[in-house]
């Protein structure tokens, strides 16, 4: 049976934060003003707030988090900090050209490296280490896609090499279904601890932090916020709520809340670890199917696996997954490592990141005077991009640098009306699940 847990106003215990590491910050007790209001206490909001105070210490920066920092979607990710921004590299080359695709990828590599630099600079204890990340093929058709993708990277002068079948078997002898892989640079870390440490660092710099302070109304014209316990008047603001943007009436047609489920197994035995050849310092994995799984080894010897995507308007940003979803994730793990059949699931949960129809994030002003900004919709690449973009937006807002070409100047975001999205997005996700099926001699395995 999967041990479920909740994170909003209930038991504060997650796979990354088994027990609370810090004191709770109270919501505002009375009406207040501030120079900059940061709405959302995930990595985007924390990075923006921290860097605003670094770059302009006299600014009165206030951050409002609906729940507890470290227990939302940022703190419940898989903790894989990898490059990539936007759709596949071959699609970028086809639609936007080689120069744009190369610049976009290099920006994401810089973002990943900046994340590591920030962790080291703040002396953050979040088990951050370079491990790499593989995109793997479980089907011959996907193996061909990865081989062609490696050719595109090579033609652009980018180092994303193809790992042949023989090398996969040597490094991961128990991964019998993996045909080949692309090797990306990447870090693995504890995202919950990262959030807590950034909260402390921002607070030490003078950021006013309010928890359990859900913003229920935000008026862009006046800069006024309603947080339930108080009314807030902000000269400028940054909205960093990712998949919850529609709850504030912002970018309703553009930011799609996609529920992503994840689970952690019980620890593997030494024999199981030896059989699959996958250890805590091994690369994380995600596969090349449209509705892909992602996974990583955990420091204590268990395995984290994610997938099972659903459209989630009106759903809480985080929560516990039901036993049916956990069982499906356990079966999907077998597609990668058959010897782990029957491995129990210890915990399962979901988060609701923001996604877009064209897979590009949305970093944009919300008004004509660029007083209020949206920062988010990372499409699953949130750790590196959110930390770097928070730094860059803070530098822009304080006049230290102009807007960077990425991720600010991206293709125009297509939108979809909410009533149509409620019909079309679930159907589209169902199609992706169908297109991602794996067929084995004993039958068809439905993944994600």
UniProtKB/TrEMBL annotation:
Q: Which Pfam families match?
A: DAO
Keyword list (alphabetical) reads: Oxidoreductase, Plasmid
What molecular function terms (GO) are annotated for this protein? oxidoreductase activity
Task: Give the residue range of the signal peptide.
Answer: none
User: Which superkingdom is the protein from?
Assistant: Bacteria
The GO cellular component terms are: cytoplasm
Which segments constitute the FAD dependent oxidoreductase domain?
A: 35-395
- InterPro entries, A to Z: FAD-dep_OxRdtase, FAD/NAD-bd_sf
Protein name as it appears in the record: FAD dependent oxidoreductase
């Amino acid at each position: 049976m999967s041990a479920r847990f909740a994170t909003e106003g209930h038991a504060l215990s997650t796979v990354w934060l088994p027990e609370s590491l810090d004191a709770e910050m109270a919501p505002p007790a009375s009406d207040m003003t501030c120079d900059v209001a940061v709405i959302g206490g995930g990595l985007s909001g924390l990075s923006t707030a921290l860097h605003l105070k670094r770059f302009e210490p006299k600014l009165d920066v206030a951050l409002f988090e609906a729940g507890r920092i470290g227990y939302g979607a940022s703190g419940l990710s898989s903790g894989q900090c990898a490059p990539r921004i936007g759709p596949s590299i071959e699609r970028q080359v086809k639609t936007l050209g080689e120069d744009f695709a190369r610049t976009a990828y290099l920006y994401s590599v810089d973002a990943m490296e900046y994340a590591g630099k920030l962790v080291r600079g703040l002396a953050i204890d979040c088990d951050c280490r370079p491990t790499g990340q593989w995109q793997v093929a479980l089907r011959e058709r996907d193996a061909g896609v990865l081989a062609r993708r490696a050719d595109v990277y090579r033609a652009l002068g980018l180092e994303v090499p193809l790992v042949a079948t023989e090398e996969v078997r040597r490094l991961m002898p128990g991964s019998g279904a993996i045909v080949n892989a692309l090797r990306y640079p990447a870090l693995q870390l504890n995202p919950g601890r990262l959030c807590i440490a950034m909260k402390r660092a921002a607070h030490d710099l003078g950021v006013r932090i309010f928890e359990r302070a859900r913003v229920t109304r935000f008026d862009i014209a006046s800069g006024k916020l309603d947080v339930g316990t108080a009314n807030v008047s902000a000269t400028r603001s940054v909205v960093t709520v990712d998949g919850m943007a529609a709850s504030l009436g912002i970018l309703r047609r553009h930011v799609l809340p996609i529920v992503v489920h994840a689970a952690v197994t019980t620890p593997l035995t030494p024999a199981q670890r030896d059989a699959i050849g996958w250890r805590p310092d091994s690369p994380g994995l995600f596969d090349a199917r449209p509705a892909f799984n992602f996974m990583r080894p955990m420091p204590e010897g268990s395995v984290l696996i994610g997938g099972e995507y659903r459209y989630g308007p009106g759903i809480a940003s985080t929560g516990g997954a039901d036993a049916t979803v956990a069982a499906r994730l356990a079966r999907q793990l077998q597609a990668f490592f058959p010897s782990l059949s029957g491995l129990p699931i210890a915990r399962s949960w979901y988060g609701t990141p923001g996604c877009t129809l064209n897979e590009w994030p949305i970093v944009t002003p919300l008004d004509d005077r660029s007083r209020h900004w949206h920062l988010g919709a990372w499409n699953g690449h949130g750790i590196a991009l959110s930390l770097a973009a928070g730094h860059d937006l803070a530098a822009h807002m304080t006049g230290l640098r102009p807007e960077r070409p990425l991720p600010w100047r991206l293709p125009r975001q297509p939108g979809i009306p909410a009533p149509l999205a409620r019909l079309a997005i679930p159907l589209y996700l169902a199609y992706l699940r169908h297109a991602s099926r794996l067929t084995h001699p004993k039958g068809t395995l439905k993944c994600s």
